[in-house]
Amino acid sequence: MIYKRKKTRQVRVGNALVGGDAPITVQTMTKTDTRDAAVTISQIKELESIGCEIIRVAVPDQEAAESLKKIKKEISIPIVADIHFDYRLALVAIKSGVDGLRINPGNIGGPKRVHELVRAAAGKDIPIRIGVNMGSLDPEIAERYGRTAKGLVESALTHVSLLESESYYNIVISVKATSVPVTIEAYRLLSEKVDYPLHLGVTEAGGARVGTIKSAIGIGSLLADGIGDTIRVSLTDHPSEEIRVGLQILKSLGLRTGGIELISCPTCGRCQIDLFKVLNEVEKHLPVTDEDLKVAIMGCVVNGPGEAKDADVGIAGGKGCAILFKHGKLVKKVPEDELMETLISEIEQILEERKQV
Ligand code: SF4
């Protein structure tokens, strides 16, 4: 490994460990109304099935806080309640069995409330994430430091000191900005000052295209520095896309191995099938697995067969069809409209065969 990861304190978020030598986890936030438990549970299960390891839900009111109990019962990954200002909601969330809180103790109305919150969190041994975002930076801090990386870090440290004054160290921190350079600078600064685990993210990064690039550069640069213990990609898109991008960032840096590696060509004038469509559909239907498996989706028989033969399973496009290779051998010709189903079924078959060994 070319990067040396900074060793942070380890905290437990339900059945996930964050920090220390625990693998870097990928998390996201639901985009459903938390008060609607059934819809929220269904989204969490979908996210679980594609590799989400920690889920956060917004808790804007009492009804949402009470809904957490139902949600918690039905899911297997740890759940974190995201609360702003109202510490009473945090107390209900803790009673409802959440595995972590995201709340900034400096915003809940004074030391008595911080004391009560910390005692409740300590009673259940759940971590508190302090999450400072540039968009909601404390006005006093903004005046003193400007909307800068230093301002983000100072704000986070002020919240941290409130928890530490209660002898509470079960802490995770994030300092997010929409600007990639500011985000990188803030986390680097913060990492020099604390040994708490860090939750990385570029906030309000944008839609799938821009947001993926900003997150990959911001989160990726920090991870390459050895900074970061859990990551959340923020996209104006379905949360499953955030998980896929998060996992891909870890895989691209070699911080996560296993799973299916998809290789596809960019296509050119030689391609005579709709390869974009085939790739999109295959991506959507890929099974989740820790097995190393290489799948090649290539547009033509010029460069296609070489890559397809090298993969566990692969196709090389022809005219309205493609030839399919499995474990290096040409197996059959498949019509274009059956390519997705055929590839997925071959992948599932290989996974099944490996289970039998
Ligand atoms: Fe073009 Fe064929 Fe190469 Fe794809 S594999 S880029 S279609 S030459």
Automatic annotation (TrEMBL):
Pfam families: GcpE, GcpE_C. Residues 261-349 form the IspG C-terminal domain. The keyword Glycoprotein does not apply. GO terms for molecular function: 4 iron, 4 sulfur cluster binding; 4-hydroxy-3-methylbut-2-en-1-yl diphosphate synthase activity (ferredoxin); 4-hydroxy-3-methylbut-2-enyl-diphosphate synthase activity (flavodoxin); iron ion binding. It is an enzyme of class 1 (oxidoreductase). Residues 8-246 form the IspG TIM-barrel domain. It catalyses: (2E)-4-hydroxy-3-methylbut-2-enyl diphosphate + oxidized [flavodoxin] + H2O + 2 H(+) = 2-C-methyl-D-erythritol 2,4-cyclic diphosphate + reduced [flavodoxin]. It comes from the Bacteria. Its EC number is 1.17.7.3. Its cofactor is [4Fe-4S] cluster. Binds 1 [4Fe-4S] cluster. This is 4-hydroxy-3-methylbut-2-en-1-yl diphosphate synthase (flavodoxin). GO terms for biological process: isopentenyl diphosphate biosynthetic process, methylerythritol 4-phosphate pathway; terpenoid biosynthetic process. [4Fe-4S] cluster binds at C265, C268, C300, E307. Converts 2C-methyl-D-erythritol 2,4-cyclodiphosphate (ME-2,4cPP) into 1-hydroxy-2-methyl-2-(E)-butenyl 4-diphosphate. Pathway: Isoprenoid biosynthesis; isopentenyl diphosphate biosynthesis via DXP pathway; isopentenyl diphosphate from 1-deoxy-D-xylulose 5-phosphate: step 5/6. The gene is ispG. Keywords: 4Fe-4S, Iron, Iron-sulfur, Isoprene biosynthesis, Metal-binding, Oxidoreductase. InterPro entries: Dihydropteroate_synth-like_sf (IPR011005), Enolase-like_C_sf (IPR036849), IspG_bac (IPR016425), IspG_bac-typ (IPR004588), IspG_C (IPR058579), IspG_TIM (IPR058578), NO2/SO3_Rdtase_4Fe4S_sf (IPR045854). The keyword Iron applies. Belongs to the IspG family.
